[in-house]
DNA sequence: TCTGGGGTCCTAGGACCC
DNA sequence: TCTGGGGTCCTAGGACCC
């Protein structure tokens, strides 16, 4: 019988900051988003102090000062590398693992029952291995459906008597865990839905599970109906659903320094387009439509936003095609006098590159160049090969006042042990 | 001095065409 | 003369997640 697990890191980015800086291990730590905008990660110690997540940094600064909280800017180079290490450890415990986000992974176990003693023990083995090899604290949850695995993972960290592993494998454990879950802790239920559900008198995940799926469908749609089924152990989300290629790929960013020059806007947009192109190629997709936008800040007195849809005559993942599309579009996007605060690029219509419809009148593109480009950047590191129109040194680079060293990816930043 | 994340998916509504 | 359905595409915004 199939079993799923979800493993995810506790306070991921904050925990990573503690790996190479033992002196802050027992102190409250928070990590800020790009541009030091919001708090996006809090370690358990900071959480206990009541530091809120997703609040603008400057608004909670007084609180952070009060408790002497350690503040770090986000260091994605470091987080990405630690995440890779963590994922490779998790992957050893199952023959089928899928990385769901930077800090969590689903694993699928087929007919493991005969081999394993029990899921609880196995979860602890996974947990110990990640701690021993990467020094990352993780929670592991097991369930017969992906939604139950998520619920168990939540329980593994949140419940009073939890020790990092939780298993839902019968009605008893299911009831026990779901009864202690708030509505918006259920995967797929956010603030709005939980508000509406509570009007019906529902309080816990278990209340939701006991609703008739049919009536939920009528009032809230199929998505929530599936969630209800999944909470009851009926599988609606298949492994393939989770692993399916993305339908949209975006790259957007706020700018540390406002852009006022045409060339700078084009460079920033090209950089985003190349990122999107590379992601698309990785999942064997070609881009048919590209949405390109730039805006001032919504907090400005006069908010400016403009977006343009670019339709490629034939779907492509070639970064040269993307770059020339950007060059054309920037002409209409750029307006003298606007101080751009945000810009980005999104592929919103993707086609599979495995089954591509050829065009009688447009000669097919030889993929050799893009293959070679990808291989070189894989082998020698991202950014080894760049388009001339990309930004290599970003003048408008984001504000990162509290950046930690990139301990594991830069020779200059390797930790030094003094005896 | 100024500061407010990033990504994916879905749907409603408007514009346009036949 | 006046009224009208149905499809596609685009845009904006909501909802959710991390």
General description of the model:
By secondary structure, the protein is α+β, with helices and mostly antiparallel strands. It has a domain at 249-380: DNA polymerase, Y-family, little finger domain (Dna Ligase, domain 1), CATH 3.30.1490. Helices cover 39% and strands 21% of the residues. It contains 15 helices and 12 strands. The chain has helices at residues 12-19, 44-48, 57-66, 76-91, 119-134, 146-158, 171-179, 191-199, 205-209, 213-220, 222-231, 239-243, 262-282, 319-333, 368-380, and strands at 2-9, 29-32, 39-42, 70-73, 97-101, 104-110, 138-143, 165-167, 249-259, 285-295, 305-316, 340-352. The strands form 3 sheets. A 5-stranded mixed sheet has the order 5-6-1-7-8. The protein has a 4-stranded antiparallel sheet with strand order 9-12-10-11, with helices on one face. Strands 3-2-4 form a 3-stranded mixed sheet. A hairpin with a 6-residue loop joins strand 2 and strand 3. Helix 10 (213-220) packs antiparallel against helix 11 (222-231). The termini are far apart. 36% of the residues are buried. The mean pLDDT is 92.
């Amino acid at each position: 019988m199939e079993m799923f697990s979800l493993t995810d890191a506790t306070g991921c980015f904050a925990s990573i900051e503690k790996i190479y800086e033992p002196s802050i291990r027992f102190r409250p730590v928070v990590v800020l988003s790009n541009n030091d905008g919001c708090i996006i990660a809090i370690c358990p110690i900071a959480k206990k102090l009541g530091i809120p997540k997703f609040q603008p940094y400057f608004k909670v600064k007084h609180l952070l000062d009060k408790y002497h909280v350690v503040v770090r800017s986000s260091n994605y180079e470091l987080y990405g590398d630690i995440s890779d290490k963590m994922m490779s450890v998790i992957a050893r415990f199952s023959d089928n693992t899928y990385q769901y986000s930077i800090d969590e992974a689903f694993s699928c176990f087929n007919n493991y029952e005969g081999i394993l003693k029990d899921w609880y023990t196995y979860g602890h083995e996974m947990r110990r291995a990640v701690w021993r090899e990467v020094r990352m604290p993780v929670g592991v949850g097991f369930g017969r459906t992906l939604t139950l695995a998520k619920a168990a993972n939540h329980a593994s960290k949140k419940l009073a008597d939890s020790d990092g592993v939780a298993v839902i494998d019968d009605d008893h454990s299911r009831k026990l865990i779901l009864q202690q879950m708030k509505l918006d802790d259920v995967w797929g239920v956010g603030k709005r839905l939980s508000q509406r559900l509570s009007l019906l008198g529902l309080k816990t995940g278990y209340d939701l599970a006991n609703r008739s799926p049919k009536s939920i469908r009528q009032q809230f749609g199929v998505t929530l109906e599936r969630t209800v089924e999944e909470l009851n152990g009926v599988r609606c989300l298949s492994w393939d659903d989770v692993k399916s290629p993305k339908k949209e790929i975006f790259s957007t960013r706020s700018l540390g320094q406002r852009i006022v020059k045409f060339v700078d806007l084009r460079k920033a947009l090209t950089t985003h387009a190349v990122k999107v192109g590379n992601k698309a190629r990785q999942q064997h997709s070609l881009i048919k439509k590209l949405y390109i936008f730039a805006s001032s800040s919504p907090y400005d007195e006069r908010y400016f936003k403009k977006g343009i849809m670019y339709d490629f005559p034939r779907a492509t993942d070639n970064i040269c095609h993307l770059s020339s599309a950007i060059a054309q579009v920037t002409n209409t996007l750029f307006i003298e006098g606007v101080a751009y605060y945000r810009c980005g690029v999104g592929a919103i219509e993707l086609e599979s590159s495995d089954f591509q419809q050829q065009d009688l009148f447009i000669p097919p593109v030889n993929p050799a160049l893009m293959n070679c480009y990808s291989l070189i950047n894989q082998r020698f590191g991202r950014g080894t090969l760049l388009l001339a129109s990309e930004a290599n040194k970003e003048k408008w680079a984001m504000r990162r006042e509290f950046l930690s060293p990139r301990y594991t990816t830069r020779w200059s930043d390797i930790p030094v042990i003094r005896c």
